[in-house]
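Hi R.,

Here's the chain you asked about this morning:
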Amino acid sequence: MDNKFKKFSTLLRQKKDLMGCIFFTLIFQLVVSVVTMKYDQEKNLLGNFMKTNQSLTHIILIICFLGIFYGIFKTQSFLIKQLLFGLLSIIMGLILSAIVHIINDPRLVESAAISTLINFGLMFILGLVIVYFGYDLSWLGIILFVGLFVLIAVQVIGMFSPQSDETHKMIAYASVVIFSLYILYDTNTILLKYQNKSKSDCILGAIDYYLDIINLFEDYLLIGSSK
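And the predicted structure, written out as tokens:
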């Protein structure tokens, strides 16, 4: 037990700079999204458009996401990566604002935010415990990728064919499970695989956590609105 604790403590010290960079970037980008969402609450730039053009909106957003992700992974500049990440955060803030406008229930939004933070905190701690005991979750990556692919395929099909509220709710529950497991997987990968001084790994880790949090928040909103 003492040997495990010593190795774990040494690992955390070695990854201190990386984890600091990841969480600083993550918090900053989440703030950008929240500020954008709050600013847009009075403007409602996307709300009405999304109500009447949901399929077109999804297609446009997918294209934007793919373009931004390509730019983030293609460029070598840490500053440009951060700027592109910021653009992604602004777009996501507008999307969240539109969703919040459609739901129009402040208590539900607050509940979804709290649930997301609790979920992330618990899964992050569990991820640390798994690393403490020396388990490598690399094998989980392909399983989560396939699960996410199936989930996206079902959602795309749902864009062009009507689905019941119960189906949407079941999809949201499945998404919560997948992204909760992704937090475990991402934490494991960051601590065991990523390089401490790598700026690219810093951005990658922050994006991983950011997408986990945003997707969980959207899922909890959908679950709450379906009750």
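The chain is about 85% helix and 0% strand.

Let me know if you need anything else.
M.
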